[in-house]
TrEMBL record:
It comes from the Bacteria. GO terms for biological process: malate metabolic process. Belongs to the LDH/MDH superfamily. MDH type 2 family. Coiled coil: none annotated. Gene3D superfamilies: Lactate dehydrogenase/glycoside hydrolase, family 4, C-terminal, NAD(P)-binding Rossmann-like Domain. Keywords: NAD, Oxidoreductase. This is Lactate/malate dehydrogenase N-terminal domain-containing protein. The active site is at 180 (proton acceptor). It comes from Alloprevotella rava F0323. The lineage of its organism: Bacteria, Pseudomonadati, Bacteroidota, Bacteroidia, Bacteroidales. Residues 8-145 form the Lactate/malate dehydrogenase N-terminal domain.
Amino acid sequence: MAYLSNEKLVIVGAGGMIGSNMVQSVLMLGLTPNVCLYDIFEPGLHGVADEIAQCGFPGANITWTTNPEEAFTGAKYIISSGGAPRKEGMTREDLLKGNCKIAAEFGDFIKKYCPDVKHVVVIFNPADVTALTALIHSGLKPNQLTSLAALDSTRLQQALALEFGVQQDKVTGAHTYGGHGEQMAVFASQVKVDGKPLCEMGLSDEKWEDIKHRTVQGGSNIIKLRGRSSFQSPAYNAVKMIEAAMGGEKFTLPAGCYVNHDALGFKNVMMAMPTTIDATGVHFVEPKGTADELASLQKSYEHLCKMRDEIVELGIIPPVAEWKEMNPNL
Ligand SMILES: NC(=O)c1ccc[n+]([C@@H]2O[C@H](COP(=O)([O-])OP(=O)(O)OC[C@H]3O[C@@H](n4cnc5c(N)ncnc54)[C@H](O)[C@@H]3O)[C@@H](O)[C@H]2O)c1
């Protein structure tokens, strides 16, 4: 089987639902045969490694370990879903303290064992803040680390496709920006349905509010239906992000990226923007929208600043003025 790359990819949290699905997706999409599975929970990890071996992927070279040094050494790409998931009734923000501590350790492992890693994707929630924590601790350049934010956009796309009875990929430009949480900013003004602008589709304000609500609650709805947090869609999209970073098909759904931009007024946060991931990393452009959409993005940004300041208070990341000491690339 031909693989896109031969470089080492580490899946952190591989014993869990998203992690195990990512290992399978990586091999099915032919990204790299050299996949290392890492988790702190040995039996789960061992079970996933056995199952993957029993798939019999041609040419695959699967290794697994609970030792971080062994896992991270030589890694060129990393995806991490290694953290606690939400349960019914919880928001992503409820995971802040515990998962940000894990993110700090994750960043430290990168700095210590694989400073030459090319790209890292962070999934575990609240993803914008865990990714920011990992970026500060890792010492990586901002364009080398992204967080998974795309599902909010694919949920919006799905809701609009159902509303208008069209195939999902006929809905384009359905994007959300800002935080991957209750305060995400849902943009309508760039959406086209089968090539026609959404504003010409006769959608009532009431219907649009309902679609927005379904988008924001998309993750909670999966928990209600399946009794657990989503895992297939995050696994697939995170793997597509790494495929793009490896030089495969570009990833153009919004990704969470580091933004520190005076002109835009967004400073020292990770958030979803109009982005492209390619072999040179992640690149963002200015979000275009109506005054209302930009105001909701501003609100989402302010919420992210609040969460960032909470983890500064907790001592998980240093105050902004001291970030450069930990990561000179910021
Ligand atoms: N960004 C997104 O769009 C998105 C979508 C869905 C879920 N998530 C998040 O992804 C994360 C994982 O979800 P899941 O369903 O796979 O959960 P899961 O509980 O099935 O798996 C998580 C795995 O991480 C491991 N783990 C915990 N702490 C670790 C550490 N310090 N180092 C390495 N591994 C560690 C656990 O042992 C477990 O195997 C959760 O935080 C969830 O909220 C994000």
